[in-house]
Design a protein that fits this description.
Order of helices and strands: EHEHHEEEEEHHHHEEEEEHH
Keywords: Cell inner membrane, Cell membrane, Manganese, Membrane, Metal-binding
Domain Calcineurin-like phosphoesterase: 11-210
Number of helices: 9
Helix content: 25-40%
Number of strands: 12
Bound molecules: manganese (II) ion
Oligomer: single chain
Protein name: UDP-2,3-diacylglucosamine diphosphatase
InterPro entries: Calcineurin-like_PHP (IPR004843), LpxH-like (IPR043461), Metallo-depent_PP-like (IPR029052)
CATH class: Alpha Beta
CATH topology: Purple Acid Phosphatase, chain A, domain 2
GO molecular function, one term: metal ion binding
CATH architecture: 4-Layer Sandwich
Largest sheet: 7 strands, mixed
Structural class: alpha/beta
Number of domains: 1
Strand content: 15-25%
Shape: globular
């Protein structure tokens, strides 16, 4: 297959939980995604840059710059970019209502689909009881999560060398843990209720790193997932329908040049 495919063009793309500035960020996969996918409007639904960890440890490789440049270039070429900060990039909440580099920063907003439905777009941490009421616990959980992710990154480097597809340890572990399932369900229900309270058709959020698209709790609940584990995004097609894109599962990942073969070719 040719490497130079024309990008797929959507009405809207929703991305969240990229966590630039951390080792877990799958910047290479995201760059690949941004190369082959375009939209009129791009929502950055929070936790794009990870400020919690940037304060302690600086991890900012060229690839993370490339992601920022790629997004800014899409803005210059005419895409509207809207950024709703999350808890990891809450420093941006001091800039609500402002524009920088062509990006609009808002706490939450309403997106209207091509067929006239209205969706609340919000990161979602405000509805996470752990982040709201026990920040120390959130920091501790954050540390445990990063440790699991580092292990995951190592595993994936090995799998990549072996030519296997991307696999997510913590996504797998999370799905196995009953408490995590309860936590996910509670979060989804709360967000769906918030959409109902605001009188809109649904909600598009991030935060819990678990992509979803369902109406289990009445209103339409859509979660964009993340780019540290599952590598997912949500697209709105030109007819107003939504799709969760699992980029790592599409096989594009497997077709990227692998370090060993790249070396052999050089
Ligand atoms: Mn978050």
């Amino acid at each position: 297959m040719s490497a130079e495919q024309a990008p797929r063009h959507y009405r809207t793309l929703f991305l969240s939980d990229i966590h630039l500035g951390t080792r877990g960020c799958q910047a290479e996969l995201l760059l690949d995604f941004l190369r082959y996918n375009d939209a009129e409007t791009i929502y950055l639904v929070g936790d794009i840059v990870d400020g919690w960890r940037l304060r302690r440890m600086w991890h900012w490789p060229q690839l993370h710059n490339d992601v920022v440049q790629k997004l800014l270039r899409k803005g210059r070429k005419g895409a509207r970019i809207v950024y709703t900060p999350g808890n990891h990039d809450e420093f941006l909440r001091d800039f609500l209502g402002t524009h920088f580099g062509g990006i609009e920063v808002v706490d939450e907003t309403i997106h209207e689909t091509a067929d006239g439905r209205r969706y609340l777009v919000i990161h979602g941490d405000r509805f996470d009881v752990v982040v709201r009421h026990a920040k120390w616990l959130a920091y501790l959980g954050d540390w445990a999560y990063v440790s699991a992710l580092n292990l995951n990154t190592g595993l994936n480097m090995v799998r990549r060398r072996l030519g296997l597809t991307y696999w997510s340890l913590s996504a797998w572990a999370k799905l196995k843990v009953k408490n995590a399932v309860n936590f996910i369900g509670k979060f989804e229900e709360t967000l769906a209720q918030e959409a109902e309270r605001q009188g809109v058709d649904g909600v598009i959020c991030g935060h819990i790193h678990h992509a979803a698209d369902h109406t289990d709790y009445g209103t339409h609940y859509i979660n964009t997932g993340d780019w540290v584990e599952s590598c997912t995004a949500v697209a709105e097609h030109h007819d107003g329908t939504f799709e969760v894109i699992h980029w790592a599962k599409r096989g594009e990942w497997a077709r990227l040049p692998k370090p060993s073969t790249a070396r052999a070719a050089a």
